[in-house]
What does this fold into?
Amino acid sequence: MNGLKCLCLIFLFKVLGGQVALSQSPMAYTVMGKILVEGDSPSGTIVLIRNSEQERIAIDKEGTFSTHLKWNHIYYFYFQKTGFVTKIIEFNTTLPNETQKTKIEPYNLLVKLFKTFDDVDTVFFLNPVAKIQFDSALNDFDYDIDYSMKVKYKLNEMSRLSKEQTVKSIPNRSLNVNSNKKSEIGKTIKPSVNASVKKPVADNHSTNQFQLPPLKESYAQGKTVEVFEYEWKTVTRIIIQEHDLRRVFSKVKHNWGPTFYFKDNSPLSYISIPKQVFEWETK
It folds into this structure.
């Protein structure tokens, strides 16, 4: 795990022009990441709040950012962009007394902003969409899975209500189709008989930073492995289907060196995870 994240950190150090330290400071904890914006350029604002103190975090043109958090405090990240739903992430840096701070890897946040829902109350988003805290079993920071799954359920409900409102807003028109009526291009318009209706497919991050095809509507029970080869990288997507629960993981191996691991069952879109966690959850 140390080797993996060291490579990640060296890469980000080059990209961000030296903004990220190459070693974890015992005085502060490094949090870095990237903003993804649905259908738009990766831009926006990030406000970091601790108690009554506010700090604006710089974002480069690629949407990446980096900051340092003091230990034993609760922070709130506000990811904002006009016309998009603001996402709040709670980050608790409290540690057990015996924890060796210098051995904890920096955290990588990947946040996807989506457009506001039409005619749907979004007061829900005044609460954090995720809570991140230290996990002694992993000796690393991780998000609260139970809380995140509740948030994801709420997001799916809001998306469903928004689609229902859109359907209701379309005028109900009675169509009287005459089979003898000619169209403008001279073809006979016939009534549709036994037209097949496609079931709507849930949003499975078909637009994602890995440029992967969308997930299938259904998968066989157990483990499914999909491999996608690109010019500069190979992405291995692993789908774990257990009854109605689906978990998705991605391994991104770049030709120029490092390999990154991600998990896709949180409202943060993809979240970076250590190699050991990836291997344990996908075995």
